[in-house]
Design goal:
This protein has two domains: 34-288, no CATH class; 291-433, Jelly Rolls, CATH 2.60.120.10. Helices cover 66% and strands 9% of the residues. It has helices at 19-41, 44-76, 81-94, 96-102, 114-139, 148-181, 190-215, 223-247, 250-257, 261-288, 290-300, 306-311, 316-322, 374-379, 400-409, 411-433; strands spanning 323-326, 331-333, 342-347, 350-356, 359-366, 371-372, 386-389, 393-398. β4 and β5 form a beta hairpin. α6 packs antiparallel against α7 (190-215). The protein is elongated, with a radius of gyration of 30 Å.
Amino acid sequence: MPPNLPPARIKPRLPHLSENRRNGLDGLLQAVATTLRLFIKNELQNHAAATAFYFLLSAAPLILLLTYAAQYLAVLAENSTPAVILLAALYEQFNLDQLSSLGVIPQKAQAAASGVGLLTLVLSSRGLVNAVQSAFRVIFPDESKRPFVLNWLLPLVIIPLMFALVAVSVTIQASLTFLASVDLLGASRTALLKGLNSVLVLLMVWTLFYTALRNLPLRRPPPRPTLLVSALATLTMAAFFYGFGVFFQVEKYQAVYGALGGVVFILIGAYFACMAFYFWAQFLYALTKIDVAAMEKLFLGGGANKLESIVFKRSNRLLARYGRTYASGETLISEGDTTREAFFIYAGKAAVFKQFGDTEKRLMQIDEGNLLGEMAYLLNEPRTATVRAETELTALVLPPAMLEELMRYSAPFSRRIIDSLATRLMRMNQSARG
């Protein structure tokens, strides 16, 4: 039996909200509930730990290379004002002084070791990219695989891209700092310039998140929700790093772990940052599959847990998008048609008829809560029978793409289709013989 009544008999729980807004709120809550369930099911906390570990391995040579760049700029700064500005921006952007005090990077680095640092960066970054790809294969399941050569070349593409974004960010920040220092725009504009710099950093992070969320999944998610989720992930990261700096003190870690305290501090921060990023990636997947998830709960009844049972209780959103009402006697499916839609009887009753020569025979009745019409899609053949509404009937009309998504998304739904087809064929054969 379906969990709700047809739309005409539904009493809205929030009269002050329009039905569209209520349906949108339902979709959001359903996406959040699905995200929480899948996050736990996919064990993304373990993927976050692996990613944080490889991030730490990659961060060390990356920061070391930034130190080499700072040393080179320090030499140029003796005779160049722009080099001084770039050097100050580099230290401010990446807090190199603080990282040196934490022991993450040495106070003095030999430029001769830069080749080793670059090689270590390439190898560790490959592990980092593989860890992220492994998590994304779980978050965005797909049977296809990337070409072997592309998997090997991907880290080599990502590293120059990251350096390019870093160079652009540092250069723009240096320009803003220079404008503020020489007071070209007036002293009152200094706060504005700092705000522009913060916006620049957020835009850079947003770009990185959008690039990852759009290109790492084998089946690209739609651009509009990807932009939205990337923005939410960026704001979450900004709030996270602000809160981490306020509530967590590196001195406590150094008191417990000694010289490794700074490394442990960064590792823990990276772990929670990866957790947040994977949560939003899982939310993006849930957002693009929310109709499929709601259909599954409607067909199978209830949810995997109490939270899902509550947020998936209303079916108004699905009815508004896929619902169709038929009068008594109206035909849903005609025998011999080549249409491929499937129908879920949400309320009412239907009957199946089949033509035997000049005689049409009634084979069976289909009550609400049942799926019909899926055989034509699965077998890719014309309709084998006619289905008419016996009472006023409300049905969800599912296009072939939705039915395919449902079967990929839900193994229990696929098993139910097989059971339903076997039962229906048996009953139709018995009716035909009788």
